[in-house]
Design a protein that fits this description.
Strand order of the largest sheet: 1-2-3
Strand content: under 5%
Helix content: 55-70%
Order of helices and strands: HHHHHEEEHHHHHHHHHH
Shape: globular
Radius of gyration: 21 Å
Number of strands: 3
Number of helices: 15
Structural class: mainly alpha
Number of domains: 1
């Protein structure tokens, strides 16, 4: 363990850890601008979460991923148990009962389930040595692994998190290979289930967000308000932005949820196209780093974990940026490491730590 710890602080992986810390510092600066007129309570909490998250990241990197593989199903069922406890112990925030309060701290178990699903799918695929495309029958177990948490999350209801888990899992499954006929049947099944899902699973406010995406101007003060204000903020930033703490939409509180789901809009307004583009490139570097680690992994389990982590960051970026720019419906998906939230930050840090640990073990210690 000591030799592995020394390797971390003597290798280029330390530079990546510093890169993650710099990304968190950027997020804190953005959060400060978004909240300094309202008491800085989220900012102060997030500073603590970043400190805890960095410790958790280093701790996760020092755990041998073979131990994670050995207890993969235990981890998965533990996150599932936390998720199942939400209806009994959870508290409702913004129309969804997704949080469990532990004194002054509120945790969102559905965020941790993302790690559980990635590890469980990696465990499933690590037992296959034939490297063949999978058919529907062989995909039954992965579908159960995905379906259990998604079903519990939709009961909260939390459409955004459920969608993220489906996208992450679908990326892993497609990466490992699916027969063309089976893939077409799955697509047809999803299309066939879309109408019943719309009628029986989605709440009225969720339907309103989706319909507002097609024409926000139909309800500019209701379901279309968030999308309209976000687009105004990003557009008004133009090329170089209005300057740090000088965004009018942000400082005058027109921009909704500017410290959580719409944190990217604050960056777009205050730092313009240049700042928004730089953040995209930083995220791209993080995704490529995870994929590069997966390509050099020593076994299938660690490779699939890296793909899953890369997919998690990629889809959070795509959906959040698409949401705040009006290209996708507003579904309540945070931008990992940037948006305020302890549970999402810890999930991101654990994921980075797992990949960092896999990268440090590419060679014999």
């Amino acid at each position: 363990m000591t030799r592995l710890y020394n390797r971390l602080f003597r290798s280029s992986d330390l530079l990546f850890l510093l890169f993650v810390l710099a990304l968190c510092a950027l997020a804190l600066a953005n959060l400060y601008s978004a909240t300094y007129k309202t008491g800085l309570v989220p900012f102060k909490k997030q500073v603590i979460w970043v400190g805890v998250g960095m410790v958790v990241c280093v701790w996760a990197s020092l755990i041998d991923y073979k131990s994670v593989q050995r207890y993969a199903l235990h981890i998965y069922f533990l996150t599932l148990a936390l998720l199942a406890a939400v209806p009994l112990l959870g508290s409702e925030i913004s129309g969804a009962k997704s949080w469990i309060a532990l004194g002054p701290v509120s945790l969102q178990p559905s965020e941790f389930v993302k790690i559980g699903v990635i590890i469980a799918l990696a465990k499933f695929y690590s037992g296959d040595y034939e490297n063949r495309p999978y058919g529907l029958t062989e995909l039954a177990k992965p579908m159960i692994i995905i379906g259990l948490p998604v079903g519990l999350i939709m009961l909260q209801p939390d459409l955004g998190t459920a969608m993220m888990i489906c996208l992450i899992a679908a990326t892993i499954i497609l990466f490992m290979g699916v027969r063309v006929k089976s893939l077409l049947l799955l697509v047809a099944l999803i299309v066939a289930l879309a109408l019943p899902a719309w009628s029986f699973f989605l709440k009225d406010y969720q339907k309103g967000r989706i319909t507002a995406f097609l024409d926000p101007s139909r309800d500019p003060l209701g379901s279309g308000y968030n999308a309209i204000q976000s687009q105004i903020a990003i557009g008004s930033g133009r090329f170089l932005g209005k300057g740090f703490m000088h965004g009018t939409q942000t400082q005058l509180r027109f921009l909704p949820e500017q410290h959580t789901d719409f944190a990217y809009s604050v960056i777009g307004e205050e730092f313009g196209f240049v700042g928004a583009f730089v953040l995209l490139m930083l995220y791209l570097f993080l995704v490529i780093w995870a994929l590069d680690t997966g390509s050099k992994a020593k076994d299938k389990f660690s490779g699939v974990v890296c793909v899953g982590v890369a997919a998690m960051f990629f889809w959070h970026l795509m959906v959040n940026v698409g949401m705040v720019t009006g290209l996708l419906p507003v579904v309540g998906v945070p931008l990992l490491l940037i948006s305020y939230g302890g549970s999402s930050l810890l999930t991101a840090m654990v994921a980075i730590g797992l990949v960092l640990g896999i990268r440090m073990r590419r060679f014999r210690v």
